[in-house]
Amino acid sequence: MKKMLFIVNPKSGREQIRSKLLEVLDLFSAAGYEIQIHITQRQKDAAEAAARWGQEKDLVVCSGGDGTLNEVISGMMELPRAPLLGYIPSGSTNDYASSLEIPKQTMDAARNVLEGQPFPIDVGKFCKDRYFVYIAAFGAFTEISYQTSQDKKNLLGHQAYMLEGVKGLGALKSHRMKVEWDGNVLEEEFIFGMVTNTISVGGFKGLVTQSVALNDGEFEVLLIRNPRTPRDLSNIISYMFLKEEPNDYVFKFRAGHIRITSKEPVDWVLDGEFGGSRLEVEVENLKERIQILHSAERP
């Protein structure tokens, strides 16, 4: 009999997994799986469960948001041989599920676990002690994801991030940074930066670039210089969301390895969770490290 580890975050998103859990378990059991279920109790619990029991399973399934998925993959990265990964998204934004075209409805996503095709994805290694799946970011608005309460996320969903973002418009802070990649060096005052491997960021598709491959060994990097005037900030926002003329304040490039240093500690966010306050950051792309089951209809 095939063995499954099913890791569930019951508080993620609007807690819809609670009402569907028995139905999902019945579906997996009917498909011939012997299921070990783990309900997360605290932060990092999902990572510990994946690392502890994942090795002996044929399939690890994660139900939760982007942060829960990050934990499960982080735990699987500690294994000598990672099993297949299935994902039932139940968070507030579910950016990575959108990139893989995994269904948003619980039962459709559960069926995708059984019927989907294995797809190799890159994993980001952050400062040698952390991992991320789709985004590592600093600066303006990044604190929204981990400072917005879970209750507010559950109540308002994606709108919660937008509400908190509007509050932070008047408190932009810049950081003097040195960015190095592939023999290139860039030194500027930045208000925001993100290293991504995703089509969707914060619920918005195409924010970094229109052409993204999740298994090409490279990240898409976006950096925003400190605007001098409110008009400059307005132009940046227009460029980011409306795709107007190229903007001198926005830098974009691709790289598999990036080093970023600053003169003061900078807070980072990894897949929506706090990633630490760092003076020096080194990010490495681990190509095709995890196999995830994605939509069978996805090309």
Automatic annotation (TrEMBL):
Residue ranges of domain DAGKc in the record: 1-130
Cofactor(s) the protein requires to work: Mg(2+)
GO cellular component, one term: plasma membrane
Presence of the UniProt keyword Transferase in the record: yes
Source organism, top-level taxon: Bacteria
InterPro entries: ATP-NAD_kinase_N (IPR017438), Diacylglycerol/lipid_kinase (IPR005218), Diacylglycerol_kinase_cat_dom (IPR001206), Lipid_Phosphate_FormReg (IPR050187), NAD/diacylglycerol_kinase_sf (IPR016064)
Keyword Transferase: yes
GO terms, molecular function: ATP binding; ATP-dependent diacylglycerol kinase activity
GO biological process, one term: phospholipid biosynthetic process
Keywords: Kinase, Transferase
NCBIfam families, per the entry: YegS/Rv2252/BmrU family lipid kinase (TIGR00147)
UniProt family annotation: Belongs to the diacylglycerol/lipid kinase family.
Protein name: YegS/Rv2252/BmrU family lipid kinase
